[in-house]
Amino acid sequence: MLRVAVPNKGALAGAAGEMLAEAGYRQRHEQRDLTVLDPVNDVEFFFLRPKDIPIYVGSGELDLGITGRDLALDSGAPVEELLQLGFGGSTFRYAAPAGRDWKPADLAGKRLATSYPRLVRDDLARQGIEAEVIRLDGAVEISVQLGVADAVADVVGSGRTLRQHDLVAFGDPICVSEAVLVHRAGSQETRAKTQLTARLRGVVFAQQYMMLDYDCPRELLERAIAITPGLQSPTVSPLAHDGWVAVRAMVSRKRVNQVMDELAEVGAKAILASDIRSCRL
Ligand SMILES: Nc1ncnc2c1ncn2[C@@H]1O[C@H](COP(=O)(O)OP(=O)(O)OP(=O)(O)O)[C@@H](O)[C@H]1O
Ligand SMILES: O=P(O)(O)OC[C@H]1O[C@H](OP(=O)(O)OP(=O)(O)O)[C@H](O)[C@@H]1O
Ligand SMILES: [Mg+2]
User: Does ligand 1 lie within 6 Å of residue 64's CB atom?
Assistant: First the structure.
């Protein structure tokens, strides 16, 4: 039976559960459940802290896990990314009190608070900076105003928490993170692992695309196809009305409105965009 670790709470838990449900796996109904058995798919899910997941997967006790790239790097556990999941996007950055033009070199000799000490120590070593790293469990941004640190290194999502505490980010991001599916580095590809990965890839991909359907006079077809080339090529079917065709093509979700505008300008009618739930390409 395949054993899979899923974040039990925090920023990644909701989207991870939704993605697995969309991929056809049984999910927990009770927030406090630590395991869920999915006999139909021959999978057991373990709901764990995202920070602990690389440790379980790196030890080989669990076959696959969903966690953040930043957490995987910080754990130092021997895990490898199989798939980027497209949610939980963040950067991991240095930040210090606003009002001064900070550079990473200014951290030399300073106290730096973080809950990702390995990630920070590795980056400081790479840059040849010697600073005191203070490990905190969370709410790191408040440590400067409480006098425990001179600067921080922390996860930045919207940037709201930094602003609220009058901190500014500086230097290149230490890590650009998102939720990822990991396995133990160098571990064997099994049919079960490949299947779960393929199912999640289908959902991730489907979320990045939309299906576009429209009607188009045959003489405009070439121009319309140039706007919606699809992945391989669009499906073109005859309409009952002579001289018209129906076209169906996948379009990048980010560009869908622009593409619909362009199609309308060319003369396409009844342009419909719909969600794709999952796919295998
Ligand atoms: N505001 C955010 N926006 C986007 N991603 C975030 C945000 N906060 C955290 N993450 C991502 O979520 C993961 C850590 O999430 P989470 O907050 O659940 O863990 P934690 O901080 O260890 O736990 P907790 O907050 O429960 O103590 C990291 O991969 C991080 O990059
Ligand atoms: O840039 P923002 O959108 O404001 O998000 C960033 C904040 O979100 C996370 O905190 P979380 O809620 O996980 O609490 P924690 O600091 O206790 O981990 C992270 O540690 C930052 O504090
Ligand atoms: Mg957190």
Answer: no
Between CA 92 and CA 79 the distance in angstroms is 19
Residue 281 pLDDT > 90: no
Judge if 105 and 160 occupy the same domain.
yes
| CA of 67, closest atom in ligand 1 | 29
In a domain, 281, yes or no: no
We report the CATH number of the domain holding residue 123 as: 3.40.190.10
What crossing angle do the helices spanning 13-22 and 191-208 adopt, rounded to 10°? 100
* Index of the ligand 2 atom closest to the CA of residue 160: 4
- Looking at the structure, do residues 140 and 182 belong to the same domain, yes or no? no
CATH (domain of 239):
3.30.70.120
> Which 3 state secondary structure label does DSSP give 5?
strand
Mean pLDDT of the chain: 97
| Complex-level ipTM | 0.95
Dihedral-angle region of residue 38 (phi above 0 means left; psi in -120 to 50 means alpha; beta otherwise): beta
- Is the shortest distance between the CB of 78 and ligand 1 below 6 Å? no
Q: Which atom of ligand 2 is nearest to the CA of 154?
A: 20
Range of the domain at 162: 90-177
